[in-house]
Amino acid sequence: MYCVRKITEDLYWVGGNDRRLALFENIHPIPRGVSYNSYLLLDKETVLFDTVDWSICRQFIENIKHLLGDKTLDYMVINHVEPDHAACIEEIILRYPEVKIICTPKATMFMRQFGFDIDGRIIEVKEGNKMSFGEHEVMFVGAPMVHWPEAMVTYDLTNGALFSADAFGTFGSLDGKLFNDEVNFDRDWIDDARRYYTNIVGKYGVHVQALLKKASNLDIKFICPLHGPVWRNDFGYFLGKYDKWSRYEPEEKGVMIVYGTMYGNTEAAANDLATRLVEKGMKNVVMYDVSSTDVSDLISEAFKYSHIVLASVTYNLNLYPPMLNYITDMKALNVQNRTFALVENGTWAPQSGKIMRKLLEELKNTTILENDVSLSSSMKEEEGTSMDDLANNIIESMK
Ligand code: FEO
């Protein structure tokens, strides 16, 4: 059964949802599923903007068949070649053999690398090129590294729709509600949107900033991303979040404590620090166990909070592996402009503070507070003073 949504008189959402996939890119948990968005323009000539993941191809084909009826498909605009959007290109070609593919030269190269049979149907476009399909004229705008180098976005000069590829996407499936004003985005979606952005595109803040600059010159009426809701108002809210995230500016002044604990002693020290911070007036404190919290959540929260405390046990005279993984991922995703504080623990040779400091020094624009707390096996009453000093320093550094 087809399932489509009308966006304007001649533009439709023809995507679908995958609620059975456990891990996006086989790495990031998606308990709320994910949508793969594709859009069909029924102008004098018909245009499909991107395809979908293979998992929902059958739904996708039913949607397109329903809307096209006897018409043929004239064009596919391929903004992004990652297989969660490009997997059904060949299926479309088989069903609509006359279809032409509009894309960047790099996208052509990538489609060939993936083994797609696209010979004789490619129209390559560059920054600022325009094409008309009847009533609608579109302009192609480069968006390299948002999130792959071949990516572009397409702006419809007639209806103001921006087909934004991965930009402005989010994890989460659409429960019949397509538009941002049909959901409570700030309550129900923002955490998944942040987790999507930071883990998928977070590394490429400079490129996102470049795209935001280009977008500021467009009169946007709709943002049509490849995942998640379509935006048709309140653009400032989401553009503002993207601006902040891509400049690596924290959303909130607050303290995120991430602890790596084997038997609960380092966790107890982290609880002590959290309590001191709250008693001193800093109530925006969150705590996460590095072993049981997915690293994609820890990355997302690192983009949210201004201060990060890492409290870790020493392990085999080295850093506790889940903590090492977290710091490595922060570096890979370009986390920067944050203030860190450290608590180490160890029974015969505490090393974790020194190792964490060295690793964090590789992050850009990072402040690491000086007075690390070093514990031997467990926190004692007399170590309250050094923990108190650390809490005071954290609060002082927020001023
Ligand atoms: Fe949703 Fe970069 O693919």
Automatic annotation (TrEMBL):
Domain Flavodoxin-like, chain residue ranges per copy: 255-395
InterPro entries assigned to the protein according to its UniProt record, in alphabetical order: Flavodoxin/NO_synth, Flavodoxin_CS, Flavoprotein-like_sf, Metallo-B-lactamas, NADH_oxidoreductase_modular, ODP_dom, RibonucZ/Hydroxyglut_hydro, Rubredoxin-O_OxRdtase
Pfam families: Flavodoxin_1, ODP
Cofactor: Fe cation
UniProt key word Electron transport: yes
SMART domains membership: Lactamase_B
Keywords: Electron transport, Transport
Domain of life: Bacteria
Keyword Transport applies: yes
Family: In the N-terminal section; belongs to the zinc metallo-hydrolase group 3 family.
PANTHER family: DIFLAVIN FLAVOPROTEIN A 2-RELATED (PTHR32145), FLAVOPROTEIN (PTHR32145:SF20)
Protein name from the UniProt record: FprA family A-type flavoprotein
Gene source species: Clostridium weizhouense
Phylogenetic classification of the source organism: Bacteria, Bacillati, Bacillota, Clostridia, Eubacteriales
